[in-house]
Design goal:
Elements (H helix, E strand, L loop, with lengths): L4 H4 L14 H15 L5 H12 L19 H17 L3 H6 L2 H18 L31 H20 L1
Helix pairs in contact: 2-3, 2-6, 2-7, 3-6, 4-6
């Protein structure tokens, strides 16, 4: 059974099932991306990066979609950014025009891609080139070597990502 939404957001006390890259790791890398994109990212930019760095895992709430399938592909990442940009150009609601700009659309796509890269570190890999190929891709250097429930790997990635983000923001 997939975790509940509050548990995925880190609010609940239950642990995610085995086989999931830790959400904190995806969030830390989203914060790192936002920090690389802007030297002093606003709270809104950080929140946007956090949301889009975990959106690929929301597939566990869609009964007809398999986990680590279509939402874990480059096509999904690029189409998400393109859709956000198109909505920003066609909708006149101020909040939509604020967050659905080229910058935010690109950041959303990059956060999804960072999610894919992190998930490609585990033995299951990701179907990076769906719908053109169903072959699962593992990160070429160490892919398939890190289990997604590996505490040391997850905490290590989290610490490095947050440390770099803090260094960027404070410089």
């Amino acid at each position: 059974m997939p975790p509940t939404l509050p548990d995925m957001a880190g609010i609940g006390l239950q642990r995610m099932p085995r086989g999931y890259m830790k959400l904190r790791t995806h969030i830390a890398c989203g914060i790192l991306l936002a920090s690389l994109a802007l030297p002093d990212p606003s709270f809104g930019v950080l929140c946007w990066a956090v949301i889009w760095s975990v959106v690929s895992d929301f597939d566990v709430y869609i009964p007809t979609v398999r986990h680590r399938a279509v939402t874990h592909s480059l096509a999904f990442a690029l189409l998400s950014g393109a859709l956000l940009l198109a909505l920003g150009k066609s909708v006149t609601i101020p909040v939509v025009q604020t967050f659905f700009t080229p910058f935010y659309s690109a950041l959303a796509s990059l956060c999804i891609i960072s999610h894919l890269l992190l998930d490609s570190l585990n033995p299951a890999g990701v179907p990076l080139f769906l719908p053109f190929s169903t072959k699962r891709v593992r990160f070429p250097v160490i892919g398939g070597k890190i289990r997604s429930d590996n505490l040391i790997a997850n905490v290590g990635i989290q610490i490095i990502a947050i440390w770099v983000a803090i260094r960027i923001i404070l410089l």
